[in-house]
C-alpha cells in the first residue's frame, strides 16, 4: 500500500494489512492517536461487502497474503476511495475528479 499509494495515504497510519479471524477477512489499519506518543487506534473493516464478479472477492479460504496481494493490485484508486478510509480528503477529491471525466 505504502509503495503504490504513498502520495494518497493518510500520514498517521503506521500499519495497514489484511487479517483473517473466525472466517472473516478484515482490512486492519493502525494509526497513532497523537504524534510523539505510541497510543494506537486499530480499526478493522470486514471486507465481505466487496464482491467479485461471481463470488466474494476476499474469501477467508484464501491466505491473508494472497488476499492482500489481490486487495492492492485488483482494486484501483477509485475503488479504494469507495471501499476504504485510507486516503486523505485531498487525494479522494483528486481521484474522484479524474474519474469524473
Could you tell me the mean pLDDT? 92
Number of helices: 3
Query: Using only CA atoms, what is the Rg?
Result: 14 Å
- Indicate how many domains the architecture comprises: 1
Cα distance, first to last residue?
26 Å
- How much of the residues is beta strand, in percent? 15-25%
Order of neighbouring strands in the sheet with most strands: 1-2-3
Q: Quick one: biggest sheet?
A: 3 strands, antiparallel
What is the N-to-C succession of helices and strands?
EEEHHH
Shape: flat
**Class by alpha and beta content:** alpha+beta
Low-confidence stretches: none
- Residues in helix, %: 25-40%
Number of strands: 3
Q: How would you describe what is shown here?
A:
With 101 residues, the protein is α+β, with helices and mostly antiparallel strands. The protein has three helices and three strands, in the order E-E-E-H-H-H. The protein is flat and about 40 Å long. It is 30% helix and 25% strand. It has one domain (13-100). A three-stranded antiparallel β-sheet has the order 1-2-3. The chain has helices at residues 64-74, 77-83, 89-100; strands at residues 13-21, 24-32, 40-46. Strand 2 and strand 3 form a beta hairpin.
Characterize this entry briefly.
By secondary structure, the protein is an alpha+beta fold. 30% of the residues lie in helices and 25% in strands.
